[in-house]
Design a protein that fits this description.
Blueprint: H1 3-11, E1 14-18, H2 27-37, E2 41-44, H3 51-68, E3 71-75, H4 78-84, E4 88-91, H5 98-105, E5 110-115, H6 118-126, E6 132-135, H7 152-161, E7 167-170, H8 178-183, E8 189-191, H9 193-196, H10 201-219, H11 241-246
Parallel strand pairs: 1-2, 1-8, 2-3, 3-4, 4-5, 5-6, 6-7, 7-8
Helix pairs in contact: 2-3, 2-10, 4-5
Length: 247
């Protein structure tokens, strides 16, 4: 695993899942705005899309991530992640097993797991080949209709483990619920509608990123440097492995 990819994941605080914005027709402009404003990882999540069309849109995401030094994530499909040369593959509980995904992708791609119960958190925190995991949904969300939401109790459980593998809270996280999520112990978040449906996606991104990073900085001992700058754009150029590869 390239050091730059792991470092970018460790520093990541704001993970965005977006569709291809076919309705708005502004995918390149949208990506430039939110990546510059503080999104650290961006995943294309557009269910029902054929692989060829998905790869076309992923090429747009890859170009934006490369220019902004951020991480590109693919959802569910190891074959698409391989073809897109993504930095990250995210796997749900019912998706390809991690060893099978690793056989396709090798060791150079970060792999994440979704978790919806304490036993799944325990497994994701320890399973070889997993680089990060997500816990949730914190609240029911139309993004995953009908899915049981374990709530903030699962966030508190993940925080109580005090293990080193990065993890993110997901599901209903927005400007109004963020403080509850942070109070439960999360220091990384995944959002969808909080940015994709915002009137000003860049401003919404900057607000979320600032608030998460301020909480991280407040956690740091007074005599130690903060985990990351409070300004999410202070070190924007060149943080991701795509940028390193381009140099």
């Amino acid at each position: 695993m390239p050091t730059s990819a792991r470092a970018s994941l460790s520093d990541a605080r704001l993970y965005l899942c977006t569709d291809a914005r076919r309705r708005q027709g502004d995918l390149p402009e949208f990506l430039d705005a939110v990546l510059a404003a503080g999104v650290d990882i961006v995943q294309l999540r557009d269910k029902g899309m054929e692989a060829g069309e998905e790869l076309e849109h992923l090429a747009v995401l890859a170009d934006a991530c490369r220019r902004h030094g951020r991480l590109l994530a693919v959802n569910d499909r190891a074959d698409v992640a391989h073809a897109a040369a993504s930095d990250v593959l995210h796997l749900g509980q019912g998706d390809l097993p991690v060893p099978a995904a690793r056989a396709i992708l090798g060791g150079g791609v970060l792999i994440g797991r979704s978790t919806h119960a304490e036993a799944e958190v325990d497994a994701a925190a320890a399973e070889p080949g997993v680089d990060y995991f997500c816990t949730g949904p914190c609240w029911p969300t139309p993004t995953k209709p009908g899915r049981y939401a374990p709530g903030l109790g699962l966030v508190r459980y993940a925080a109580s483990l005090r293990q080193d593998r990065p993890w993110f809270a997901i599901g209903g996280v927005d400007a109004g619920t963020l403080d509850e999520v942070l109070d439960a112990g999360a220091r990384r978040i995944v959002v969808v509608r909080a940015i994709t449906e915002a009137d000003d996606p860049a401003a919404a991104t900057a607000d979320l990123a600032r608030r998460v990073r301020e909480r991280v900085a407040a956690d740091a001992p007074a005599d130690a440097p903060a985990d990351a700058p409070a300004d999410p754009t202070a070190d924007a150029p060149g943080r991701g492995p795509a940028a390193a590869a381009a140099r």
